[in-house]
């Protein structure tokens, strides 16, 4: 009996996993001039962020603006790139060669309970770390977008 119950629980687990995969989406982010389109992304765990039209661009996580334990982003110059979303939270990434022109984006995964505090913390990082400064405008844009 115990074995049967375990097997049922395992089957239920597989079914849940399967439905999560079915609901997973591919979200396309394009390099457009010296911007990512879109610049504000809403995603969920299981989605894939698909970077396309990346000639002259690449993508990298912004230090200090990344959920703890989430895999970092780093693509090759000029290449398409797929990033599988594994963790809830707020992410900021950049195109390093065009970061001075603010080519980056803010991505929210799931519904983080500490969203406002995290955005406030990232804004502090943008104020204090020179390398992170271009994120300020993106985070403000994100706040204005109404989340
Ligand atoms: Cu770029």
Automatic annotation (TrEMBL):
Cofactor note: Binds 1 copper ion per subunit.
Subcellular localization: Periplasm
Signal sequence annotation: 1-24
All residue ranges annotated as the Blue (type 1) copper domain in the record: 27-109
One GO CC annotation: periplasmic space
Residues the entry annotates as binding Cu cation: 57, 95, 98, 103
Biological source species: Methylocaldum marinum
Keywords: Copper, Electron transport, Metal-binding, Periplasm, Signal, Transport
Designated name of the protein: Plastocyanin
Superkingdom, taxonomy of origin: Bacteria
Transmembrane residue ranges: none
Main location: periplasm
Cofactor: Cu cation
SUPFAM superfamilies per UniProt: Cupredoxins
One Pfam family this sequence matches: Copper-bind
Entry's Gene Ontology molecular function annotations: copper ion binding; electron transfer activity
InterPro entries given in the database record: Amicyanin/Pseudoazurin, BlueCu_1, Cupredoxin
């Amino acid at each position: 009996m115990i074995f049967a119950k375990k097997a049922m629980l395992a089957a239920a687990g597989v079914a849940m996993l399967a439905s999560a995969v079915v609901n997973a989406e591919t979200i396309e982010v394009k390099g457009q001039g010296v911007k990512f389109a879109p610049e504000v992304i809403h995603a969920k765990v299981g989605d894939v962020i698909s970077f396309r039209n990346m000639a002259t661009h690449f993508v990298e996580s912004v230090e200090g603006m990344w959920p703890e334990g989430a895999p970092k982003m780093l693509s090759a110059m000029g290449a398409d790139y797929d990033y599988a979303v594994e963790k809830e939270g707020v992410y900021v990434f950049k195109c390093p060669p065009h970061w001075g022109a603010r080519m980056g984006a803010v991505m929210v995964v799931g519904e983080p309970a500490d969203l406002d505090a995290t955005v406030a913390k990232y804004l502090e990082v943008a104020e204090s770390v020179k390398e992170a400064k271009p994120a300020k405008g993106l985070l403000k844009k994100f706040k204005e977008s109404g989340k």
